[in-house]
Amino acid sequence: MAASKTDPSFFENVFDVVRLIPKGRVTSYGAIARYLGSGRSARLVGWAMNLSHSTDPSIPAHRVVNRNGMLSGKHHFGAPDQMQKLLEAEGVVVVEDQIQDFKSHYWDPNEALDLER
Question: Residue 73 belongs to what domain range?
């Protein structure tokens, strides 16, 4: 069943996954969507990240990037460089909105959370 923009449980599920991303690691919108069984809902994960800035407890939305390691959601963080600063504080190097050594920082919920079950 596909998720929709009005499905609050899908957004909560996205937030739950994002809260599990370890510091210094990143994942993609699509990886979260696939983990939640909605592989074609990467854009909807992005909508959830847009709303995540007003949640309590907080959501580490800065750890969610596009499939190529680009900071595609950076304009939702207030200051243009805030997302980069948050990632760099966790040891992730970003150059021109691109995570350097993306593969070593990539966290796949399908693999990581499968191990925890």
Answer: 8-116
Q: Is residue 83 part of a domain?
A: yes
- Burial class of 42 by CB neighbour count within 10 A (0 to 12, 13 to 18, 19+): middle
Residue 57's contacts (CB-CB under 8 Å, 6 or more residues apart) are 19
pLDDT digits (tens, 9 = 90+) for 78-89: 899 999 999 999
Judge whether 40 and 33 are in contact, CB under 8 Å.
Answer: yes
pLDDT tens readout for residues 2-24: 555 556 799 999 999 999 999 99
| pTM for the full predicted model | 0.89
Rg (CA), the chain: 13
CA-to-CA distance for 84 and 82, rounded, in angstroms?
A: 5
CA-wise closest residue to 90 among 76, 75, 107? 107
Q: What is the spatial distance between Cα 52 and Cα 99, in angstroms, rounded to a whole number? A: 21
Number of compact structural domains in the chain: 1
